Amino acid sequence: MTTLSSSTASTAIAHPLQEIALHPSRPPDLQVNNMTKQFGSLIALENLSMHLKPGSFHALLGENGAGKSTLVKCIMGFYEPTAGELLIDTHPVQISNPRDAHRYGIGMVYQHFTSVPAMTVAENLVLSRFGKTGVINWKAEMEALRAFISTSPFQVPLEIPIAQLAAGQKQKLEILKQIYLNSRILILDEPTSVLTPAEADEVLGLLREQVTDGKLSVLMISHKFREVMAFADEITVLRKGKFAGSGRVSDLTVSDMAEMMMGEKKEPTPVAKTTQPNPVPVLDVRQISANKDSGLPAFAGIDLTVHSGEIVGIAGISGNGQRELVEVLAGQREAVAGEVWVNSERYRATRAEMYRHQVFALPEEPLRNACVGHMSVAENMALRTFDRAPQAKGPLLILQAIRQMAVGLIGQFSVKTPSPETPVQNLSGGNVQRAVLARELSADHIKLLIAANPCFGLDFAAVDFIHTQIINARNRGVAVLLVSEDLDELLKLSDRLIVISGGQFSYQSPTATADFATIGHAMAGH
C-alpha cells in the first residue's frame, strides 16, 4: 500500500447535468455553433460551426494560425468563447475547464507528451485519474490495469518507466490515458508529429478500428493529407480564423483540401521593388541535412541559393522541416550533413561569423528565440552590439550609450514601450517583433536577413510595417530568406517561391509565374 496523488474511486464518469443523458455505450454528439474567440483586437476564431458526429473520425485542417488550436481549447475549456455555443447531444453546455470536458466524455491528447518520465506506465495511468488524494492498493490496481490493457487497442508494458519508452509507445500511452478515463471523444493535436510513418499508421489504424466499432469519436488536428485521406471520414477546414470548407473525405481530393486551406487564387500583390544590378550569391546551402528533436530526419539534401537584392520565400505546411532549417542557419541546431556558405566563405553560424558576414534574423516566437524576457528593451536591442564601441570600453559596458541607441531605435521603428528600461516580455507581441526588427535591421551593412513567420499573430498595422521593412532591406541589396506559412505573405513579398514538403523542396518558381494549383499539390506532398 502506497500513497499517490490520485483516487481510489472507479474511473466511470458521472455526468454533471442529470438532465443530459449520455449513453455509456456510444460517443456523444458534439456541435460547435457560431463560435467566436477574440483576444483584444485580434479575432482568432470568427463565427465557426462544426459537427462531430458520434462514431466518426473528423480531421481539422488549416495552416498555422488558422484557428485550429483556439477552437479545440474552447471545446476543452482552456478558453471561454467570446460568442457562440457548444452542444452535447443537442443540449447547450458550458465547459469552463478540462475537468468539465472530462465529465462530458471529452479528452485531449496534446502535441507534447504529458507523462512523468521517472514514473512507470502504471503509475502514470493511475496519476491521470481525476479525484482526491488517496491510498493506492497496488495489488488491486495492477490487476485492474492488466485487465484494462488486455482489452485496450494499445499494448504498453505497465512496469516500464516512461523514460525507457520509444516515441511511438509514449504516444500510445497518451491515448491510453484518455481511454482509461473513459473519454468517448478524443481530440488529437498533431498526434503523429514525433512518429515514423509506420508508427503513425499503426496508432491511427488502431484508433480507426475503435471509431468503426462505435466506441470513440476522434477530432484530429493534422497537416498530413496522407493520414487524412487514409483514416478520416470528414474534414473541416479553417483559414485565418474562419470556416473555409468541409466535406466527406470520400468526396474530396487532396487538391480540393489544399484549395480550401489556401483560399481563392490571388495574384501577387504589387510592392515597390527596385531592380538590383549585378546580383551575387550571398547564401549558398549545399546538400544540408538535419534532424528533429526526436532524432527523426527533418530535412535532407537541401540545396538553396539566395542572391543579393532577392527575397526567396519558402512555403509549406507546418512541420515539414522549415523550422529546423531556420534553426540551422541561425546557429540554433546542428546540421548532420552538408555545408552552408555565406559571401563565398564556409559559414557555421557562430556569433563572430554572423557579425563578420552581417547575417541577421527575425525568428519565429521572438520572446523564446530572440529575446531575454526579463531583460529591458534597451538591453535586448543591444544583444548584438553590447561588447563593441561605443556601447563598451574594454570589459566595461557604457550603459548611457546602450540607452541612447535604444531611444533612437524605439523612435525609428515605432516601438510602443513605457520606457527603454521596461522588460521586453511586458510588450505586446507586435512591439516585441518591432524591437527585434529594430535590432536586426539597424546595422549599416546587412548582407543576409533570415525571417521566419515574422508576422504571425500580429495586427494589420504591425504586419504592414514589417513587410515594408523587409522590402526596403531587399531594395538596399540585402539577400532575404523568408520562411512563412502564410501564402499570401509569400506571394506579396518574394521574388522566387520554393515549397518544402516532407523535408524536401518539391516546387520552385519565380513568384510572378508560379502556378497556384501546382503549389497546392506540392504543399500537400503530391
From TrEMBL:
UniProt KW keywords: ATP-binding, Nucleotide-binding
Protein name: ABC transporter ATP-binding protein
Matching Gene3D superfamilies: P-loop containing nucleotide triphosphate hydrolases
Cross-referenced InterPro entries: AAA+_ATPase (IPR003593), ABC_carbohydrate_import_ATPase (IPR050107), ABC_transporter-like_ATP-bd (IPR003439), ABC_transporter-like_CS (IPR017871), P-loop_NTPase (IPR027417)
PROSITE patterns reported in the protein's UniProt record: ABC_TRANSPORTER_1, ABC_TRANSPORTER_2
Gene Ontology MF terms in the entry: ATP binding; ATP hydrolysis activity
Organism whose genome encodes this protein: Phormidesmis priestleyi
CDD domains: ABC_Carb_Monos_I (cd03216), ABC_Carb_Monos_II (cd03215)
Signal peptide positions (record): none
One matching Pfam family: ABC_tran
Domain ABC transporter: from-to ranges: 30-265, 280-526
